[in-house]
Predict the 3D structure of the following.
Amino acid sequence: MRKISKQKDGKDAALKEYYKLYLLHVRGLKESTIRHYFNSIQTASRFLLEKNLIRHDIYEIGDLQCLYRLRDILYADPEFVELDRRGNRMYSAGLNNYCRFAEGSGFLNATAMTCLDVPVEPRSNVVRENMKWQRSNILRVQALAAAKYACEVDSVHKSFIARKNDKPYMEGHHLIPLLNQGRFEYSLDVYANIVCLCPLCHRMLHYGRKQDLEPILERFWIERCKRFEHSGLSLTEGQFMDLALKNRI
Ligand SMILES: [Zn+2]
Ligand SMILES: [Zn+2]
């Protein structure tokens, strides 16, 4: 039975939960090492909270560039630098390790991703009221890296090389559109629901004909239905096809 993460005050728990599972199952680290990593993120979060730059902790940051900016701010803070020096660079090591995880570098691959499927609470109530389901850029970046930047419709599909990371340009697509979040108890913005697609396939999934999309979506269902279940998303194949085909703009 997988542990279900409950959060009380609208905090975003996805990255925190994923990070813990990643350190444990993907990196195979000892509990004591993981505790060190978590403590350093907590300390870094405290510094950022004092500066009013975040609401709860670093795990709420869904954008990679924003994460880098916050890291730069900490590394420019003499108090943080001094604390880090006294702690044998434990805090910066922990922060750098988290950034590498957020980039999806090294250890994340298709098999690793399935170890991380866990039900995640949807994002905060404030977001829910606005009916705008905020998507995490970090989760998307990680999903593309884990797919090795290959189109999941067909890995032979070619794309151009992206300027920002020198990797084939790919796009993240939510199979069950996020605007359906209201129907689900757990978050749709999870690894299990994000596929890596070449730009042409991505446009096709949004604008293509039903008869062309059905076989692709059926294959995704077979590949992903267990992962949906582990992520707390309960739905039948019929419901999946319905949601994945509809509400496209
Ligand atoms: Zn899409
Ligand atoms: Zn493609």
About this structure: The first helix runs from residue 14 to 26. The chain has a mean pLDDT of 88. The chain has two domains: 28-103, 110-245. Residues 151, 153-154, 157, 197-198, 200-201 surround zinc ion (ligand 2) (CB under 6 Å).
